[in-house]
Design brief:
The chain has a single domain (4-144), classed as Rossmann fold (3-Layer(aba) Sandwich), CATH 3.40.50.2020. It contains three helices and eight strands; from the N terminus they run βαβαβββαβββ. The chain has helices spanning 10-24, 41-50, 98-106, and strands spanning 4-7, 32-37, 56-65, 68-76, 87-94, 111-117, 127-131, 136-139. A hairpin with a 2-residue loop joins strand 3 and strand 4.
Length: 158
């Protein structure tokens, strides 16, 4: 279980993805982007817009089945990206680096960037915006939903 939780709102994600794009402007030019599905899809769309890139490819890697972690399996390779020359790989988060290692092996010449990085995976990426502790679980806006909470005065105290 995570010791800390960090909730990312849609607004915060958008600001952080734009901050990543700003950092990446001086590293290009890029031919296109490869989004790591699924978490990297939305950040990749924002970065593609900010860098004015129209070629967006994806790579799909499965490392979890429900809550069980297994060996990573590439279920859709990034065919258009070749060895990654001129490409930018985008993900939301690098955690342990497991997925990043697989994707890096597919496209060793690409520039790998993510919004959030944890210490165990940080060495796998070339650029990131925010580092969080390894024991922090990031709650992305697509994994959460706002719900009504009773005011404290209305709650029954047990």
């Amino acid at each position: 279980m995570a010791a800390h939780y960090y909730t990312v709102t849609w607004d915060q994600l958008h600001r952080d993805a734009r901050a990543l794009a700003w950092r990446l402007m001086s590293c290009g030019p890029y031919t296109g982007i490869v989004a790591i599905s699924r978490g990297g899809l939305i950040p990749a769309a924002i970065v593609a817009r900010e860098l004015d890139l129209r070629l967006v490819e994806s790579v799909c890697v499965v490392t979890y089945q429900d809550e069980l972690r297994g060996e990573p399996v590439v279920i859709k390779p990034p065919a258009a990206a070749g060895d990654g020359t001129g490409y930018l790989i985008i993900d939301d988060l690098v955690d342990s680096g497991t997925t990043a290692r697989v994707v890096r092996a597919l496209m060793p010449k690409a520039h790998f960037a993510c919004i959030y990085a944890k210490p165990l995976g940080r060495e796998m990426v070339d650029s990131f915006v925010t580092e969080v502790s390894q024991d922090t679980w990031i709650l992305f806006p697509w994994d959460t939903e706002p719900q009504f909470i009773e005011p404290l005065a209305r709650r029954t105290v047990a």
